[in-house]
What does this fold into?
Amino acid sequence: MVIFLKHIYIILLPAIIVAGCNKTIEKENDEELTSLKGTKWKLECIVDDETKTLNVIEPKDCEKCYTLIFDTDSTADGYSAANIVHLINLDPFRIQCATYIAECDCNDGNFYCGLLLLAKSYEANSNKLKLFFADKNHYLLFKRI
It folds into this structure.
């Protein structure tokens, strides 16, 4: 079932991003980040830089959902809508979702985990963390909390 869902994410991802876009991305000047250790991040949106649009996923008012907390510069733990997420290593890039159980159709937890599993690289500065899942134009954008 998980493998099947991954294929659906890959096939439907462009359509989901384009269909769900509702804001224009604004450029920000942020300071360089020297360490991820001890930082906390919350997903702000899914970005498509080619069209300069973003998609906010549900539930968007959940404080704990879609967060990452770095315990070292290359490892983090966090949450989807209903599950635990482990970022195991940033070099080479490796993320895992603990389980897909309990994610429901009322939120985008499975979608989020699917994109995390596709992530291949990242960039970070003092206020923003980008996890690239397709190329440098498609990424999960996290805001520091």
